[in-house]
Amino acid sequence: MSTLYTGGEPAAIGSGDRPLVDGDIVGEYVIRDQIGKGGFGTVYRATHPVIGKQVAIKVLARRYSADQEIVDRFVDEARAVNQIRHRNIIDIFSFGQLADGRHYYVMEYLDGTPLDRYLKEHGVLRLEEALPILRAIARALDAAHAKGIAHRDLKPENVVLSFDDEGQIFPKLLDFGIAKLTTPDEERAHRTGTGVPLGTPLYMSPEQCRGRDVDHRTDLYSFGVLTFRLLTGDYPFHGEMIEILHKQMHEDPPRPSSINPALDSDIDRTIAWMMHKDPAQRPATAITAVVSLQGEATVPTPRVTPVTLRPFVTGSVGRGADQTADTLAATASDTLAAATGDTLVPGTLSGVTGARRSRTPLWIGVAVLLAGAIATVGWLATRSPSGQSAPPSAVTPAGPQPSTASAPDPAPPVVAVPAHVVITLVGAPDGADVRIGGKSIGIAPTVVVDRATTQTVLTVFAEGYHARPFTVTPDRDQELRVDLRKKARAGTGPRAPGKEEIIHDIPGLTK
């Protein structure tokens, strides 16, 4: 369940409350056993006495049921989930109050494993194992964000891995207990006081740590931390709570590949993209980040700034000065290489110190003589810890170089074209299924399709609506406006079309 940090730990849960036991009646359901206890309440498994349906019931502790702000937030969780209505988000379908004043809501019972327990049992996940989990979580987050809702407490404990009818892992996102409605017309969007951090420090974004200017982009940062943990088995930052909050705000995370060498630099860059300190520099959507993890999108190269190159204090468990130096060297080396076209040899960056790294500086001198003369000396001087010179970088050798013209500018770097694009369906009904040629490719509001310069037909199916195809040219990330016609009720008009009957496309609906 969610953890609330407001400067102190909550008191013992259930203080003064009578625990529910097997046979207790809550609404229409009979309590069977307790299945969990969190920061503000307890979760029980219950069944319907007639039809046998299993549910989970979350009961707010009585001491918190007297706190109107917490009760409002408890209600907000149920409201947020029902506004989103996504198959990868747990369903909450009833709400009430016990005789002793405690509030509760009823949600679907998930027969699965919490992601944190799954990680303890399976250890570090390979990329191909992590991608289906991350893809489902990304779709759930994007669906929430499309409704103006930020989760704000994304972590493995709030993801349950259940299984579908084919035995495939089917993640469910839960616990929107500190979710924030970010639409400007919602009064409750301002319910959390400025300067009060809410969340779990290990996964909190810099703006969330400060307790202000928090919107849906905080989830993208947390999604980056979650990805980091799945692929490395570790957290980006360690320490006491205040220390972690400071690091989230001011320090760059280590490269995931420095912890798990099986990861490549593309994964490093994608996770750094999600965990960018500036919310505006993070991916536009969570599914965009997943596409990048698959190696099918280009990650923007950050500009070198004093913040990027500033060494950070080493205090993490299992991390030392070497990792700090490697991180800084790789970041600056990659950026300089992208800007100049030169390839820098690892270990040749000046100003980086480490337990095994030389302090020998990198000197680059370039002098250009005017009046059609001679380009003169540039050299790269470095030494490894053993005293041997490092291999030369791709720069002009020392010595005079006769020339009658200025050296040509380096060729611009080749930018990879993403193999897929993200289509956002605007106006699609909740839970709409999107198909190409009869094959489902995802659930609205976002789907990923193969990049193409020719038109592709996406057919949108939604319960209670006529299925309808829409034509789009998937040559870029874009929005597709969806307008479905509701089916007529039986006996109220002309014969309702069959379940799979499709209304033909109306041109000009793509944006």
- SSE order, one letter for each helix or strand: EEEEHHEEEHHEEEEHHHHHHHEEEEEEE
CATH superfamily of the largest domain, please?
Transferase(Phosphotransferase) domain 1
Mean pLDDT: 73
Please give the domain count.
3
DSSP helical segment count: 11
| CATH class placement of the largest domain | Mainly Alpha
> Can you summarize the main beta sheet?
6 strands, antiparallel
> In terms of structural class, how would the helical and strand content be classed?
alpha+beta
User: What does the radius of gyration come to?
Assistant: 27 Å
Q: Helix coverage percent of residues? A: 10-25%
What does this protein look like?
The longest helix has 20 residues, at 127-146. The protein has three domains: 25-108, Phosphorylase Kinase, domain 1 (2-Layer Sandwich); 113-300, Transferase(Phosphotransferase) domain 1 (Transferase(Phosphotransferase), domain 1), CATH 1.10.510; 418-511, Immunoglobulin-like (Sandwich), CATH 2.60.40. The radius of gyration is 27 Å and the shape is globular. The protein has helices spanning 62-65, 68-84, 115-122, 127-146, 206-210, 217-232, 241-250, 265-274, 286-293, 306-309, 321-340, and strands spanning 25-26, 29-37, 41-47, 54-60, 92-97, 103-108, 113-114, 149-150, 159-163, 169-173, 180-181, 420-426, 433-436, 439-443, 446-450, 456-461, 468-472, 478-481. A hairpin with a 2-residue loop joins strand 1 (25-26) and strand 2 (29-37). It has a six-stranded antiparallel sheet. It contains eleven helices and 18 strands. It has 511 residues and is α+β, with helices and mostly antiparallel strands. Residues 1-15, 183-196, 301-400 and 492-511 have low confidence and may be disordered.
